[in-house]
Amino acid sequence: MKKYLEEGQLVPDEIVIDVVKKALENASPNGFILDGFPRTVEQAKALEKIAKIDGIINLIIPDEIIIEKMSARRICKNCGDIYNVADIHKVINGVEYILPPMLPKNDMRCDKCGGPLIQREDDKPEVIKERLKVYKRRSKPVIEYYKGKIPFINIHVNRGPEIMVEVILQKLKEAGLIH
């Protein structure tokens, strides 16, 4: 899977479907959330045979913000802990984006193990732009496929994770998908 991602490509459907199917065999009886799946109509059709989908959380964020935030991601070379050096404060199409950095306590050293922080190859702007092109070409039809079948919870991601988690939970409650 790593090879495909580093090249800015999506992992082939048959591999991803098999991984998801195995993961859902161990899913909680109270439900589950899939992140980044399905990405193609073929995956969506396969998912319908595996599980019932109650709703779709559609995170909306401009490409400019995605590229800036993803290219600022840093991971620990030793343990894989994740940080982000981007401090985004801007307005795009009337929406204010305040996305603070997630910095380590010690300059470019992991808080967990002290290892050096690095940028992954697939977090470079040129790879991210290619991944976005692939996403738009192959994944947008998934939205069309699900329209009218499953409720969409559209959420503009314009704040940090601590705020966005609460927004997502509130929207899921409003949609009757969680209590």
Question: Which helices and strands appear, and what pairs or packs with what?
Answer:
Blueprint: H1 2-6, H2 13-25, H3 41-50, E1 56-60, H4 63-70, E2 73-76, E3 82-84, E4 88-92, E5 95-99, E6 117-118, H5 125-146, E7 152-156, H6 161-174
Parallel strand pairs: 1-7
Antiparallel strand pairs: 2-3, 2-6, 4-5
Helix pairs in contact: 2-3, 4-5
Brief account:
It is built from 6 helices and 7 strands; from the N terminus they run H-H-H-E-H-E-E-E-E-E-H-E-H.
Q: Would you kindly provide a written description of the structure presented here, covering whatever features stand out?
A:
- The protein has helices at 2-6, 13-25, 41-50, 63-70, 125-146, 161-174, and strands at 56-60, 73-76, 82-84, 88-92, 95-99, 117-118, 152-156.
- It has 179 residues and is α+β, with helices and mostly antiparallel strands.
- The chain has a domain at 2-61 and 135-174: P-loop containing nucleotide triphosphate hydrolases (Rossmann fold, 3-Layer(aba) Sandwich), CATH 3.40.50.
- The chain has a three-stranded antiparallel beta sheet with strand order 3-2-6, with no helix packed on it.
- A hairpin with a 5-residue loop joins strand 2 and strand 3 (82-84).
- Helix 2 packs parallel to helix 3 (41-50) and helix 4 crosses helix 5.
- It is globular, with a radius of gyration of 18 Å.
- The chain starts with a helix and ends in a 5-residue tail after the last helix.
- The model has no long low-confidence stretch (mean pLDDT 91).
